Amino acid sequence: MNKKAIPLLIAVLLISTQIVSATVNPYIDTQEYPFHSYAVGIASYGVYQKGDKLIPYYITTSSVLGYVSLHQVQANSPFSVQMNVMLIVNDQTFWLQNVVVIDPVGHYFYLSSSVLNLTCTNSPLTNIQGEGSFVKGNDGQCYYVNYVGDYRYSLPLSFYLVINVTHTSNHVRILFGFKGINGTCIQGKTIFFQDDVIYIPHVYRASLYVSGYNYLSDSSPYQGFSFYDAELVFGGEGNGKVINFDKLQAYLSLYYDRGGYVPFPSYFDFGSDTAEGTTNLVTHKVGDLFLVTTGRQAYYYLGEVHDAPIHLTGSEIVISERSPLEMVFLSLVLFLIVVGAFFRKIISML
């Protein structure tokens, strides 16, 4: 597979010059375009859902961290695990993406990063410097992208994705990182495979931003709004591809830095700030993690999260080991989910 010929432009179709203030409705795209296949996993939109009521909150941070543990996968084509988040610099908005593209047939993966200026239509990125290159996406926008790999893997495959942002008075630095935990030859260390610097004069603020208070208005004829959200989701390989999984079992968590990594306050099971999608995935909350399996795809609220077993030890990022009793409990929950899906299918055939 020639990655350069098939650029991973997991493209936001959401370009605008106007910020629209309103309590965000994460379902607005899924309601307006119900037959579109969205990316599935976990996403924070800066919104709690209490019955029919949506309650907004916002988060600013310098780092977002995603945890992925892939235990079973069967598909006929490559797919992506993408972490997407918005960056606010002064009055400009940038879309950032850290991606692992996995080929389940060839048993290898590669890493990719993307930066897109969403401030207005055709916003320039001529002031960015790094090891990437400019590629024009299917949506006509100019992305700054980079690819690293190929790496062999075996299951279970577990890793972290991280995006870090720092700034001075005249530039913003974005680090895209990957840390293998198991199942890969590059496990045990964090690889910052892309180091982008955006030169902007008089930087007075630069942070990753999640907000349920406002949309980034969109002039696209396809989707209505762009969200200030953070996503860790599954989708097709790139360029708007949609994938159907024969089998998937994966655990996800998504965190932000607040003097230490903590979970976002609430999550939904779908991401809207990406063009890729899936057709048959569903997310379940299992303990302090989220389990993604094959099933009847629907888009819904996963609930609030108040705690998670994650901490920092020096420069190492660690998720606490589970006890044998916890593993038995999680296995039982997974078994009941599978049995329930089986009986629902039998009943639907009657």
Shape: globular
Could you tell me how far the N terminus lies from the C terminus, measured between alpha carbons in angstroms? Answer: 44 Å
Structural class: mainly beta
Number of helices: 2
Total number of beta strands: 27
Radius of gyration (CA) equals 19 Å
Average pLDDT taken over every residue? 81
What can be said about the biggest beta sheet?
A: 21 strands, antiparallel
Low-confidence stretches: 1-19, 219-224, 312-331
Q: How many domains, in number, for the residues?
A: 2
SSE ordering: EHEEEEEEEEEEEEEEEEEEEEEEEEEEH
Strand content: over 45%
Helical amount: under 10%
Can you describe what's shown?
With 350 residues, the protein is mainly beta. The chain folds into two domains: 19-316, no CATH class; 320-350. The protein is 9% helix and 55% strand. The chain has helices spanning 28-32, 324-349, and strands at residues 19-21, 39-44, 47-50, 53-56, 58-61, 63-74, 79-89, 92-103, 108-117, 128-129, 133-136, 142-167, 171-184, 190-199, 206-217, 225-228, 230-236, 242-243, 247-257, 261-263, 266-271, 277-278, 281-286, 289-294, 301-304, 310-313, 316-319. A hairpin with a 3-residue loop joins β12 and β13. The longest helix has 26 residues, at 324-349.
